[in-house]
Description:
Elements (H helix, E strand, L loop, with lengths): L1 H9 L4 H19 L2 H8 L1 H18 L5 H18 L2 H13 L4 H28 L1
Helix pairs in contact: 1-2, 2-5, 4-5, 4-6
Amino acid sequence: xxxxxxxxxxxxxxxxxxxxxxxxxxxxxxxxxxxxxxxxxxxxxxxxxxxxxxxxxxxxxxxxxxxxxxxxxxxxxxxxxxxxxxxxxxxxxxxxxxxxxxxxxxxxxxxxxxxxxxxxxxxxxxxxxxxxx
Length: 133
């Protein structure tokens, strides 16, 4: 988010162009998020997780170009990747947990609580470290 604004500003784009680029990413995530679950189920969870990695890599590579059309494609790919991020990995974990390994559902709840606890702690620690550095 914020670093992209500064990056696009360093490319001497107008504020209106920068806003449109940022909205393209958020809008694509919103649109793709409506049906990405069905796509994940159809293509497979593991393949969707791999697709997330590829799409996000392409999105990150796009910021090295100063071409607006390439940046728009990169933002759209980033939005699609974000939709995959917030659906594929958790679906894959649930599937592996219940179907493949046959673990109990109570253990799944515990796993999610630990996952979110660690994720939030890492977020807080990263923020504090960012303030120091």
